[in-house]
Design brief:
Blueprint: H1 7-13, H2 54-66, E1 71-75, H3 78-86, E2 94-98, H4 103-113, E3 119-123, H5 128-132, E4 139-145, H6 157-167, E5 170-174, H7 179-182, E6 192-196, E7 210-214, H8 217-230, H9 236-246, H10 249-269, E8 273-277, H11 287-293, E9 300-305, H12 310-319, E10 324-325, E11 335-337, H13 349-354, E12 361-365, H14 371-382
Parallel strand pairs: 2-3, 2-4, 4-5, 5-6, 10-11
Antiparallel strand pairs: 1-7, 6-7, 8-9, 9-12, 11-12
Helix pairs in contact: 2-9, 3-4, 12-14
Length: 383
């Protein structure tokens, strides 16, 4: 029996073949909007680039491969990908989602789709009994982030898959923080995996792109229709750059995780730090779940300094020299963010703070620089 192809190989070769025209090893950038036809409907598989583009097709095949899925779909952004999933629903449908999630997802759910008659319940997905209380015959989707943004909670994906299959509820997982290197939710039975490919997949903070990966034929057909009809598709250059980024995903994630482990331990032992949120600690409430469903613990972590209010936190943030104060995450460079005023500002303050997103919370996206330099930068900023 042939041995299954390994993840590190899939990132480079998964779904890829040399270009048929000239044997190009990297898929060419097909910078075109339309394609010549010999006669009406007589073409080479491509008519118009909103519907299909060869560069995008190459990316979508690779996305499916690295998530162990059958179908990949690329969108203009992560939020465009989430938007497509929500368009599978009808007025009156209900969604159960995490109460600790990316602010942009919350804004899309509440400000756009709730006004269209879809009801959202935001609960702690690490507490199944809270979820059971919200599920009823109108529940059509459970939306999971794991690890969560920014509190690094870990959700037991398999437990919700078992629940959903009995009740005919779709399960979608935002896999952005973990990446397919650390976690492959389709293998656990979910219906849809979503990524903001802007982050770890592309990995270089130079593009905006979103993805969905599915196994089911009918679900793929519906999402592909929405993708084409709504038109929120990425250009061929962004698809090319994402493909290029994925080729180094495995080696980047290895260094990301190595660096984050050392930094998390440094912060946990520092006298000025009150709390560090990172699933790699034995003391993390969902450490055993993370250990079971992830390959490693990721390069995202959050922390709070002792006595930190907004003013003290701002002073700390201004001191960083290697960690760049910026939105986003997952690039080769280390980033530092302030969720309360940046990524999660669209979430009401009371709801933020109830989940721990206080003014003193700082979120790190640990890059692949020399970890000793990163620790030195942290020392001088927090010390």
């Amino acid at each position: 029996m042939k041995k299954p192809i390994q993840f590190n190989t899939k990132t480079i070769h998964g779904g890829q073949e040399p270009d048929a025209s000239y044997g190009a090893v990297m898929p060419p950038i097909y910078q075109t909007s339309t394609y010549a036809q010999a006669a009406p409907g007589d073409h080479k598989g491509y008519e118009y680039s909103r519907t299909h583009n060869p560069t995008r097709t190459a990316l979508e095949k690779n996305l499916a491969s690295i998530e162990n899925g059958r179908y990949g779909l690329a969108f203009a952004s992560g939020l465009a990908a989430i938007d497509a999933v929500m368009k599978l629903l009808q007025p009156g449908d209900e969604v159960v989602s995490s109460n600790d999630l990316y602010g942009g997802s919350y804004r899309l759910f509440v400000k756009i789709f709730e006004t269209m008659g879809i009801r959202f319940h935001f609960v702690d997905l690490t507490q199944p009994e809270a979820v059971f209380q919200k599920i009823n015959e109108k529940t059509k989707l459970i939306w999971i982030e794991t690890p969560t943004n920014p509190m690094m909670r870990v959700v037991d994906i398999a437990s919700y898959v078992r629940l959903a299959k009995d009740l005919d509820i779709m399960i979608a997982v935002d896999n952005t923080f973990a990446s397919p290197y650390l976690q492959q939710p389709l293998d656990l039975g979910v219906d849809i995996v979503m990524h903001s490919a802007t982050k770890y997949l592309a990995g270089h903070s130079d593009l905006i792109l979103g993805t969905l990966v599915v196994n089911d034929d009918t679900l793929h057909e519906k999402l592909a229709f929405i993708q084409n009809a709504s038109g929120a598709v990425p250009g061929p250059m962004d698809c090319f750059l994402t493909l290029r980024g994925i080729k180094t995903l495995a080696v980047r994630m290895q260094r990301h995780c190595e660096n984050a482990t050392k930094i998390a331990k440094f912060l946990a032992e520092h006298s000025t730090i009150e709390k560090v949120y990172w699933p790699g600690f034995d003391s993390h409430p969902q450490h055993d779940i993370a250990k079971a469903q992830m390959r490693d613990y990721g390069a995202m972590l959050s922390f709070v300094s002792k006595g930190a209010d907004f003013e003290k936190t701002t002073r700390i943030l201004k001191k960083f020299t290697l960690f760049t104060l910026a939105e986003s995450l997952g690039g080769v460079e280390s980033l530092v963010g302030h969720p309360a005023s940046m990524t999660h500002a669209s979430i009401p303050k009371a709801m933020r703070e109830e989940q721990g997103v206080v003014d003193g919370l700082i979120r790190l996206s640990v890059g692949i620089e020399a970890v000793s330099d990163l620790i030195q930068d942290l020392e001088q900023a927090i010390g």
